[in-house]
Each structure stands twice: as structure tokens, then as C-alpha cells.
Description:
Blueprint: E1 3-7, H1 16-29, E2 34-38, H2 44-48, H3 62-67, E3 77-79, E4 86-88, H4 97-102, H5 110-118, E5 124-128, H6 135-144, E6 146-151, H7 155-175, E7 180-186, H8 193-205, H9 218-225, H10 238-266
Parallel strand pairs: 1-5, 1-6, 2-4, 2-5, 6-7
Antiparallel strand pairs: 3-4
Helix pairs in contact: 1-10, 5-6
Amino acid sequence: MSAVIAICNQKGGVGKTALTINLGAALAEQGRKVLLIDLDPQGHLTEGVGMKDLYLEEHNNLYEALTDHKGGEAALTHHIPHEKFDLIASNYHMVLIEQKLFMTRNREHKLKELLGALSKNYDFVLIDCSPNLGNLTDNALNAARRVTVPIQAETSSVRALDLLFDQIESVEKGLKIKVDVLAVVPNLVQDSALSRRILSELRESIPVVTPFEIKKRVVLQEAYDKGRSVFSFKAPNSVKEDDKNELKKLYTELATLLTKQTNSASH
């Protein structure tokens, strides 16, 4: 049975997309069959894996699938030639989807219905959520029932976490479901006294904060700009290679942690 995980935080700039891409690559390196879903109308994940052309598809796109559900889910999935995972791309029409879903019956179930048969082909499905708490995020929470939350070691990120937890509780009550927060991942962390203090306080108050943090490294942005994960990116020099290897180790550690979490939850 596949594990569907929403990578979620309504606060922008916390590195959701980079985490989704590189966690997906780490899971694939471990031999898992992985599907990434770009649920953000801005299409950053689609661009970040080098498949920007898919964002402009007129037919067989995610917008159509979520609003005019007619089957044909397999046509939505694309293998990324330079990676070991598959992708359902975002689409430029997705900027209209919040309004469209608002007028639709059973709107919170559209993504869950779409993934029904499709997810059985994968060990992990990772959903890169949009940076807001609207209908798309509700769809992701309902489809996944599992959440991983990247945050930065900043006061504003901690406040945003409270809002997200409130949203999760609201969705649980409204849809009568249980959503498990698998991990809160300190992401794009810079080494400073403030960061260390915030991380210490977070780990004291929230048990699911990971014991490690993903460091902020320039090579992460360079890989994204080339449309690659850090696992397939060729670093330009030895210093960047060291940074890349450090990040690969951290994403692999996260992949192992989430695999254990999902396995224990399913038993």
C-alpha cells in the first residue's frame, strides 16, 4: 500500500518544493517507486525538476483532472528522465482552481478520487502543497492523511505552524478523518544563535520535530536552477560537492525516518 504524504506549510519561503524534490529523490535512491505531485498553481516543483513545458499543457493536465474528473489519470504522470521518480505537473490553469473548486460538490475529495487507482503503482506519493490554507490544501490533507511540515528557524515560522495545526484539526473534524503529522523538518537553516534557540524550543514543545535540520546551502538553489535534485546535480567544484554530499545525507536520513513512520502507522 502506498504512503501519500502532503508537504505542507502555508508560509512561503520555507523550502517546501526543494524538500519535496530531494526527499523524493532520496526515497527513489532507496529503491522506492515515487510520484511527486505539484499542487501549487505557481508550478515551482514542475520547473524545479526541469519539466517547465508540462506547465503549459492544454490537455491531460492536473486542472482538468481535478475539475472535470473523467479518468485518464495515467496520462498525467511523466517520468523525469534525469531522476528516478515520476511527476504529475502543475498547470497554468491552476491559478483558477480555488474559485472553481469552491463551486464544486465534494470539493475536498477531488485529489483523493484522482489518486484512487493511481497511487497503487507507487510506494510513496509526495504532494507539494500551495502556500495557503484553501481548498487545494484541504484536498492534499484529505488525500494524504499524512503530513510533513518544513519550517525555518524563525519566529514567524513558529506562528505559522500553529495556524497549520489549526487547519489540520478543522479538516479532521469537517471530514471526520485523522491526519498524522509525521515530521516537522527545520529547513534552510542558517547557523546562528537565534536559530539554535528557536530549534531548541521547538524540540521541547513539539515531539515530531526531527533531530536533524536541513542546512541552507547555495548548491541547493543551483541544483533547482538546473532542474535537478541534489542527487542528480553535478557540482561545479569540490566545495559544492561537499555541500551536496552533506545535503544528500540529510535527505536520506529524512527518507529513512519517514519510511519508519509510515510503516509503523500502517501496522
